[in-house]
Structures
1.
Amino acid sequence: MKQVGLKKLNDAYADKFGFSMPEKSVLSFDFGLSEKVIENISNSKKEPKWMKDFRLQSLKVFYQKKMPNWGPSLAEIDFDQIRYFIKDTDIENKTWDDVPKEIKDTFDRLGVPQAEKEFLAGVKAQYNSEVAYSSLQKELEEQGIIFCSMEEALQKHTELFKEYFATLVPAADNKFAALNSAAWSGGSFVYIPPNTHVKRPLQSYFRINAARMGQFERTLIIADEGSSAHYVEGCTAPVYSEYSLHAAVVEVFVKKNARFRYTTIQNWSGNIYNLVTKRAKVFQNGIMEWVDGNLGAKMTMKYPSCYLVEEGAYGEMLSIAYAKNNQIQDTGAKMLHLAKNTSSKIIAKSVSVAGGQSNYRGLVYIAKAAANCKSKVECDALILDDKSSTNTFPDMKISGDNASVAHEASVSEIEEEKLYYLMSRGLNKTEAMTLLVAGFIEPIVKELPLEYAVELNRLIELEMEGSVG
Amino acid sequence: MQTVLLQNQETFSLEPKVDTLYLVLLDKKANDGKIKVDLILKNSDLNCQLLFLGILKNKSNWQLESNIRHLVPRSSCLTEVYLSQKDESRVDFFGQIYIDQKASQTKSFLKEQSLVIGEAIYNRSRPILEIFNNRVKASHSASSSRINEADLFYLMSRGFEKIEAEKILEEAFFNKVLDSVKVDSAKELIKEYLC
């Protein structure tokens, strides 16, 4: 482990992810939210009337809904001081050479084209409000796999789009889902045909470049019967003194005997409010796995859920939250057992350091009709100093017959004995603590594709260097 | 450690000065009830235990709440809830452990176990941890599971009626609790309750 040139967290983040590019948008609207702005977004995308109506109706719901009265404070968010749409390119490019220079340079610095060459089956790169680059390996296209922007899906795969869009996360679900439904732009549409297996991951990369901007992408995934695939998303933003808002909606449909894994490595800069609604509906013997790494953002509120609606469905959540420098990571998972013989597992690990606060908030619900269900929840929290804190707020509601539910949570500090052992072998305190943190989160990191696991360990290492010792 | 039986009230606000085991035995005759225990640990080097025991009969409905607040260094508390749930019984348990920023070297644990014997039961459990100090050990666990079918089958194959076999397994569940209690006066109260 290197001894020289240690950087503080913000320096390290700013170097690798926190840079910004000059704003060169081809279309943007002024600050604030109104019917006019929503109509303009819809008009700019040449949407059918039903979508424009859906947006306007969602805006009404947004105005009616109150801010959440639980969880961390969102009082700072002023919806009139946010830009809701910034379009930086007129077309969704299919080669990197066609992508505008500033955007291409951004994704080059983030290593997206290189990752695409080395190990991805397809890539979407979203810059501010719209997808700037998209690709899918030819053989996958030939198998009938669809991986495109939501706008393209709405135009080209209208029936499929309409059948699933907003059926799992309706606008009325919560205030930020309503906001997303009104102002959505960009995001990925994925369709995996029956019995098709995508061996390499599909990746979307979300980048906010502008300050005081709202990114409201929407992701819709349908894994048809007997199929399997792995989708990965990453997110970063420049370091600004003003906040930005990311309020995404993700809907995943896992059909009979299908298996889908959705991995997120969230590394927003420390000025982003990350308020995301993610939900999966799992059918007979389907398997849905959420793998969620939350390292960045000023505040994250995210509770991916699985609706286990048919017999034999399985939902799993593996999550890591790393809260530092007064960040709040309010994360968790929801497993709703709505059919018999369904099962679920939640493993959540969190690390709090340098005034960070990590909260686990989760729900296991077993409906009356759902007999013979099993669920297991494990939450482990590590607090590295006396300025940080951690909370767990689990909720288990069991009505179904013959259910077996177990929940365990623990909070601890790094054991002096282990620290002493490593330091007696020549490591300094920071290196020893980094190694122990890496060991703590290892059960989840090992579930990531190798390239992401290496990157996540490196990120944690960088962040520990600036935070402890 | 002294034993204190908490009874005849819905709400208890406790600030122990000496090591104490607080015992809550849910009224077996009552169809429903509500019990809330606030236990505030303001003295260092204090060890406390809070034990809820309940045999929930058909259609009984209970709301239980425990709030353990550690405000000074070096206190410890073990909160345990053991319930057997029969047909259509309902229980809603809220258990909070709060460890203040000043309360270093605190140890606090919460354990809730429900043994389900009948059909159509409802069990809601919210074990909450709020930790503001890093030099602590805190954990909670909650589980709810049906009486083991293999154990039931074994006993029934030895000639016991189903209802008798269930009774034996329920007794075994509570005997484990009895074994874990180290204070004789509390043991006597629990034995009396289980008879």
2.
Amino acid sequence: MSAANRGTNADAASEDTAAPPPAPGTGDTTPAPNDSEDRGRGILKSIVTGSSLVAILAVVLSIILGGILIALTDEDVAAAASYFFTRPGDTLAAAWEAASSAYVALFQGAVFNPRADSLALMFRPLTETLTVATPLILAGLGVAVAFRAGLFNIGAQGQIILGAMFAGWIGFSWHLPFGLHLIFVVLAGFVGGALWGFIPGILKARTGAHEVIVTIMLNYIAIYLVGYLLTTPSFQNPGSANPISPRLDDTALFPQILGPQFRLHLGFLVAIAATYGVWWLLNRSTVGFELRAVGANPFAARTAGISVTKGYVVVMMLAGGLAGLAGVAQVAGTEQVLTSGIAASFGFDAITVALLGRSHPWGVFFAGVLFGAFRAGGVQMQTLTGTPIDIVLVVQSLIVLFIAAPPLVRAIFRIDRKKKSNGQKGSKNQMASGGAA
Amino acid sequence: MSIAGSVTEPATSTGKSWKAPIGFGFGALVALLVFAFGGPATTAVFRVSDDSDRFRLADIALPANVVGWIVALALIAITVYVYLRVRRGEKINRWAGIAYAVLFVIGFLTWVVGIADRPSISLAGLVAGSVTLAIPLIFGSLSGVLCERVGVVNIAIEGQLLSGAFAAAVAASVSGNVYVGLFAAAFAGVLVSLILAIFSIKYLVNQIIVGVVLNVLVSGLTGFLASTLLSRDSATFNSPPSLPDIRIPLLADIPVIGPILFQQTIVGYLMYVAVIVIWLGLYRTKWGLRVRAVGEHPQAADTMGIKVNATRFWNVLLGGAVAGFGGAFFTLVSVSTFTRDMTAGQGYIALAALIFGRWNPIGAFFAALLFGFATNLRFVLSIIGTDVPSQFLAMLPYIVTILAVAGLVGRSRPPAAGGIPYVKE
């Protein structure tokens, strides 16, 4: 975490040369109290502060850049560009058409489709967005919790797989009554993810092994492990030659909230509950305070009598468990069978979700919904306009890059920092605790 | 990537570390149970020469269970030796570790070939394939060495390799010249590095974040372009010529090591050159001393008049060029079209190789060879028919890496200032 504090100070020092210097020690010694004060007043405040302005501008800028990329690679634009010097308007019109039609299709696939038959179906895309957002939010929370304790959890992918593996196995091989079965499935998923979080946690605590490396390695081990298990009789669907499990029992599945025509399932409510739970844990509980203290300054935390090693293990198990719940949402909600591709790329997207949400539980929630919308809409966009869904990856990563470097965004939009420097100092601390953990 | 060492390492800082004996003992136990007691009563045959070779050597035929017992007992002996040295508070001889590793590999190979349906493999093919598979890993981990030695954590190796593969395919197709493709690959790697350098050095963004995000960005960008431009007109944009093998007469006929050293593409030869040049540069030149000083103690380096951030900047760009060049392997040597995400996580394995190789070019070289060997062994074993699930073999490099960073297989210490942006006080 010393890196982050250094970054904060340096950032403040280099950027605020014209503004009054920050009060001594604000960045270095007391980030934790500052943070909790801020968070107490919630989301409303963060919308009006500069950091959220930067976030919104980052999103806008990324969407514009994505649009330019779509236009540049469009065939009609290329055709019109061949006579650019005689009629430049054609090229621009074609470029606008290409980019806007792609984004309109994305919006219609993610939020509201006016061409559907009934009003309910018009909102079907929104439910798809929330369905896709569910694992993103849960895994994003897993990454965010670790960030707050100063740990980099790149291993959400593997934790999702382990969660789905445990939950799936309980789901199709145990046969329990309705209600009880689902509870066991959810618990098993949490335990599976927590196990995969425990390994980097204990290795970090006992041997100092860097969690980034260990979690990346565990991702691959998880992929091969589930690939192997799906070839064994206890996991593979009898009679199937493909590496695919039997369908989970009906009692093990998340009920669909809005009826069978929508895929949105109870897992989304679990994601909301988890978001609240993490917020409560981090901001209202002793454990959460200790975790944040470890993240802010492990040396100070140890001096204050907090066990840093225990903190690492606990937070990684919690992080893994949350990502494991994302695996439950996949296996018991959306997919209903276990495959080796159960985690898709949710584990890696979760990192960007956590960064965009600045590691605040509700920030992660909304970032998850936004990226869920990109993903759900991206599928529609690809079918309607032929724009590859990869553009979503480009836009997402640009958003995170820009958000991570507020001075760059301010420079692009020529925002005068002198007037705002007071409002932004607080937000910088948040950025440090979230982004640069 | 500073391992917040002193907070989490109370055990190792106070004298004797029992990690090495524990790790060695664990491996010896595995050898005893699997290779010795589980050794099949078959003969594992390693074919040294193929029928087409100019010089032929006799095949090596090893009785699997006998070799299993010898290896297991030798490993136990080394473990006892290491235990005694640690108990007396002496340093562990590094040759003990190397001998241990070599013996373990021999034991494992003999066992795994012995239990196969057709217990006979071509040693030359196994070695040559391992080197070929390791080429991009080696370039990737050299990029990591260059960046991390100067204090910038490079998670973006994957993105550098992928961008190099993409640029090589497009540039070589459009120009019809493979060497243009090689230059374009290095240039694309530099571009990725440029973003890494600007964000992490100028804007002080956390280096791991930038690296992770860059990988996503490159994956999205190349995937997008592959399914628009490249798929629309693949004849123009995505059908690069292949690099020719350059065969050095006579030397290439040496059994086993001939093909890997003297029958390579220019990428393969430059791989050896890069390893040696970067090693010499880092450890035998003024430049290397400065680079390592910046990575270990930037304040001290600054005091001595070294421009810390400029050194970091140029090194990161150089690293990008090396990894981008290595990415050309995918489209100009291995396969001759670009497909999306074709690097398939090799950049992360290169990262592991760099750590397993203790941030040293030569170490990274051998670690990457080991990973290439593990991957190749998987293919070879699936041909001769074995009961060992291929997934477990695929897991091996990752498990070994975890053991390495946990300190069970030697100590792996990163440059002290890794991951920390430097700002002049």
